[in-house]
Write a structure and sequence with these properties.
Number of domains: 2
Largest sheet: none
Number of strands: 0
Number of helices: 4
Length: 122
């Protein structure tokens, strides 16, 4: 139990009531404050600690996504411009198909890598 909770509970136990023993409204306010403080300590404090890691992860995903998109676009442009008449006429869909499968291979290899690392950490 955190120290601030022990202090609050000690104050509540030591606080004397009136002769009728009706001290509930004051205690309820203290308990509500204690619950709020505990909630903030147990939820927001850990999030503040991992804030930089979350930001790094989001930025890495963003930049990797942009990089992979540009890589696939470069593959498509090379296939369209450097192959000459190989993919002309009825085969004009082939560079798009090759690029599509390259994207699937890239996504599959990335997923495999992530899954292997997750299995290794567990």
């Amino acid at each position: 139990m955190p120290n601030f909770l022990k202090n609050k509970l000690g104050k509540i136990k030591n606080a004397g009531g009136d002769s009728s023993g009706n001290k509930f409204p004051g205690d309820f306010g203290e308990i509500l404050q204690m619950v709020k403080a505990y909630f903030l300590q147990e939820t927001l404090a850990p999030l503040r600690k991992v804030k930089h890691k979350i930001i790094q992860t989001v930025l890495a995903i963003l930049f990797l996504g942009i990089g992979f998109f540009l890589l696939l676009l470069a593959i498509l442009r090379v296939l369209q411009s450097e192959t000459g008449a190989l993919f002309g006429g009825n085969e004009s869909f082939a560079p798009y198909l090759i690029t599509f499968f390259a994207g699937l291979a890239l996504a599959g290899s990335l997923a495999w890598y992530v899954l292997q690392n997750l299995r290794g950490k567990n």
